Amino acid sequence: MEYARAFLCGGLICGVSQVIIDRTRLTPARLLTSYVVLGVILTAVGVYEPIVRWGGCGATTPLFGFGYTMAKGVEEAVRQYGLPGALTGGLTAAAGGISAAVVLSLLSAVLFRSKGRD
Q1: Radius of gyration for the alpha carbons in the chain, expressed in angstroms and rounded
Q2: SS3 string of the chain?
Q3: Is the pLDDT of residue 21 over 80?
């Protein structure tokens, strides 16, 4: 049942994203940025935590989950270090994902050649 909830939650988030892209003039880059910010805001007001408990990886994997991870990292760092933790907590919590994105991007750039636009 856990897998079904994760699939439904992640699928719903991605489905809403696709409808927004298809029906509005919002570019994918702006939508991605908006989702990260919205994940932080929903976590800050306490709305996203119940979604994560219900949807598991389906809620933490999409970009809302990246914002959720950053917000939780800031919350923990502020609890431990006070106000300076607000500056470092988000990046510390998301460092694994950020590092993986950089390394995999570099690896794909080295292994594959892009085709020129003609």
Answers
A1: 17
A2: CHHHHHHHHHHHHHHHHHHHHHHCCCCHHHHHHHHHHHHHHHHHCCCHHHHHHHHCHHHHCCHHHHHHHHHHHHHHHHHHHCCCHHHHHHHHHCHHHHHHHHHHHHHHHHHCCCCCCC
A3: yes
Identify which of 93, 102, 99 has the alpha carbon closest to the alpha carbon of residue 39.
93
Task: Show contacts of 10-13: CB within 8 Å, 24+ apart.
Answer: 10/55, 10/57, 10/58, 10/59, 10/61, 10/62, 11/58, 13/58, 13/59, 13/62, 13/64
- Give residue-wise pLDDT tens across range 44-83: 899 999 999 999 988 888 788 888 888 999 999 999 999 8
Token pair of 68, please?
């959720």
The Cα 47–Cα 29 span in angstroms is 24
